Queue: 2 jobs
Job 1
Amino acid sequence: MTRTETGEDSETETTAASGETGTAAASGEAETTAASGETGTAAASGETETTAGERETTPADDAFAALSDETRLAAVSAVAAADEPPTFTDLFEASDADTSAGFAYHLRQLTDRYLRKDPETERYELTYAGRAVARALDAGTFTERVDRAPTGVDGDCPVCGASALAAAVVDNVVAVACRDCETDLLALPFPPGGVRERDTADVVEAFDAYHRRRVALAADGVCPDCAGVVDGAIDLVETPALPGEEPRPLVAAGCESCGFHLRVPVSLTVVEHPAVVALFDRHGESVRNRPVWNLGPEWHETVLSTEPPAVAVTVSLGEDRVRLLVGDGPTVVDVERDEGAERDERDEGAERDERDERAERDERDERAERDEGAEGSERVDGEVASERDGEKRSGDDGGEESSAPVGGGGASASDGADPSASDSERSSAPPDASQ
Ligand SMILES: [Zn+2]
Ligand SMILES: [Zn+2]
C-alpha cells in the first residue's frame, strides 16, 4: 500500500487544481477512492461510505482527548515520517515510553481514529484524521504564530498608482497595503509553514499563488478548507470611499460545512478561465503575472443586471478582447471573443455593454434554461475570502473599497466579517479579497 500520505500531500497542494477537485467532488465515488489515499483511512468506516454515503462522527472532545499526550502525538508524527509503515516495535523504540505495555496503551487510544493497523502486516498507517493531525503538527497550524515586519512589494497600488506597496505578516495573516495612500489592499490568512522558510518577497509570491488557487477552487464550488459545497452570489457593494464610483460587484461565497467565507471581485473568480488564459497566452503573457491584489487595467467589470445579477467581465489585450458573462451562482454563462476589437473598451465597452445588455440578457436566460451545464458555463464562486477570523482587517480600516484595480471594474474585496453587510466590504482591495 502506498502511503496515503503521499497522495495527500500532493493533493493538498494541488488544490490548485481546482478544476479537478471540483470534478472529483461532484462526481464522486470513483474518484474519491482515488484521491484517497486519504479516504483510505476512512477505510475502516469506509468503503461503504463512498457509495452509500454513510457518515460516522466522533464527539470532538473524545477525538481531541485521544491526542492529548506527548507520546501519542510523537507516535502520529513517527508514522507520518516513516519511509514505510512501521511496526509496533519500530514505534516503541522511537518513543519515550518506558514499557511496551504503556506504549501499547497509548497506541490503542489512537487506533482506528488516527492510526490503522494492517491486519496482515501488523504495520501502522495513518488514517485520514491521523494524516491531518500529522500535517498540522508539522505545518505549525495549531502551534505556530508568525509575524514579519512590512517589506516593500513590487508593483503599483491599484488605488493611487504609487509604487509603495508593502506586505506584512501578523499572526499568520498576510496583509498587502499601500504605504502611500494607506489603503489596505487585502489581508488573508496564510499558513505559518508558508512563511517559515521563505523571505518576505517569496512569501508574497507564494501567498498570491495560494489564494489564487483557493479562489479558483471556491469558484468551482469546492471549499478550499474542507471540500464542502461552496455557494456564491453576486453582491453589489457601495464604495463610498471612492466618489463617483458605482457599486461594485463582488462575489460572496461561503461553505456551509465549515463556515469558510470569502468575498472577492467578480474578475478574480474568472481569472483562470480558459478563454482568459488563452488570451494572455496569445499575447505572450500570463495571467499569473498579475497578483491577486491588482489584476491590472486590462480588466473591466460592467453590471448588466441586478435582478438577476449579471456582470460582464471584459479582459482586453491589444486589439483582442474576451468578455465573460457571469451570472449569479456565480456561473460563467457565456464567453465572447473579439479579436481585434476596438481598443478602448473602457469607455466604449461601457456603451456597448448597455447596448447589448438586453440581447445578452435574453441570451443568457435562454442558455440558463437550456442547461447550465452546457459548455460555456462554468461555476465561479469567488472567494475573497474572508474567513471569519481574519475578518475585519480590511474591513476596519480599509475604507476604501474599491479600488478597482482592475480596470475599473475591479472590486474590492473584503473580508468579511459580515458578509452581508455593506460594511464589510470595505476592503479595498482591488480585486481581491480578504478573508
Ligand atoms: Zn496607494
Ligand atoms: Zn468548508
Job 2
Amino acid sequence: MDAAELKAHSESLEAEGPEAILRFAFARFPKVAISTAFGPEGCALVAMAAGIRSDLKVFTVDTDFLFAESVALREQFIARYGIQVEVLRGAVSIEEQNQKWGVRLFERSTDQCCALRKVEPTRRALKGLDAWIAGLRRDQGQSRAGIDILESYDREDGTSLVKVNPLARWTRKDTWKYLVDNAVPYNPLYDRGYKSIGCWPCTAPVGDGDDERSGRWGGQKAECGIHTFMSRKA
Ligand code: SF4
C-alpha cells in the first residue's frame, strides 16, 4: 500500500469504530500483531479482537519490573479469551543489567533502562510484521495528540511497517465504558488511584484532576520509547 493509499484509508477509517478498523487491519495485513501492556486500551483492543479472530497474534513485553497485578492480569486474559500471548523480555537479564549499568538503573537513566527492557524486545517483536496494532489514544496527552489511524514507519533494515491505532478517536471515558459494558478484566490498581500503569519503579498514583500519564516517570518524560524509536514517514 503506497503512502497516498494509506492516507486515504486512514482518513476514511476516521468515520469507523475500533472494531471496523481491526477488521480492516486483519483483512489487509497478513502479518499483523497487537502489542499491549494490558492497560485499559490494550484490554479493550484484545477483548474486541479476540471476538473477531481466534488466531490472534498478541505480544507483550515483560520488563521484569511489572506490578504483580499486571502479571496476574496477563494470565487472566490468556485464560479468559483463550489467546496466545507472546511474552518478550529484554535480551539483557536484570542481573546482567545490574552488572553492566549498576543496580536501580531506572533511578539514573530511565532512557537507558527503557531502551534495554522495553524498546529492544519491542523492536525484536516487530521484525517481519506488516502491521502493528497499538492502543494509543489522541487524548492521552501532547505526545499522542497527532496520531493517525494508519501510520507508516521506516524500520532500520529499510522495510516499512504500518502502525494501526484503532482507538485514536476514543477518549478515556469511551475506553472505560467499553470495559465495563463488556465485563472486560482490568488492572485493579486503576481502582487505587493509578491512571496509567507501567513498571512499579516508575509509576505512581495521581490526583483526580491530574493528566493521565503524569504518574509515569515522575512526570520527567511521557513516552518510554517504543512508540518513538522508529521514524514516521511523511
Ligand atoms: S519504566 Fe522504569 S523500570 Fe520500566 S523499563 Fe523504563 S526505566 Fe526501567
